[in-house]
């Protein structure tokens, strides 16, 4: 299973999201997180500029802004 986390540089919430998603990765054996810098793609920048960080699975948004590991874990376990 792969999650995607949309981020940008100089983003305190993005750094916190990485810490929370490290916990999620440790919780599940078969999970990885791909980090995508939205500034590398104008379409992503337009879509997520005011929402980063954004965590998705199969293009479905799980959570944005203040990411917490419990919400992400609950979502994955509900699949």
Describe the overall structure.
InterPro entries: Glutaredoxin-like, Glutaredoxin-like_YDR286C, Thioredoxin-like_sf. This is Glutaredoxin. Pfam families: Glrx-like (PF05768). With 79 residues, this protein is an alpha+beta fold. The chain has a single domain (2-78), classed as Glutaredoxin. It has helices at 12-27, 42-48, 69-78; strands at 2-7, 32-37, 54-57, 60-64. It has a 4-stranded mixed sheet with strand order 2-1-3-4, covered by helices on one side. Helix 1 links the parallel strand 1 (2-7) and strand 2 (32-37). The longest helix has 16 residues, at 12-27. The radius of gyration is 12 Å and the shape is globular. The model has no long low-confidence stretch (mean pLDDT 97).
Kindly summarize this structure in a few lines.
By secondary structure, the chain is of the alpha+beta class. Helices cover 42% and strands 27% of the residues. It has helices at residues 12-27, 42-48, 69-78; strands at residues 2-7, 32-37, 54-57, 60-64.
In CATH terms, the superfamily is Glutaredoxin
- Rg, Å, rounded: 12 Å
Assign an overall shape.
globular
What fraction of residues sit in β-strands? 25-35%
- The side-by-side strand order for the widest beta sheet comes to 2-1-3-4
**Helix content estimate:** 40-55%
Mean pLDDT: 97
Please write the string of helix (H) and strand (E) elements. Answer: EHEHEEH
Number of strands: 4
Q: Outline the biggest β-sheet.
A: 4 strands, mixed
Number of domains: 1
User: What is the rounded distance between the termini?
Assistant: 11 Å
Query: Architecture, according to CATH?
Result: 3-Layer(aba) Sandwich
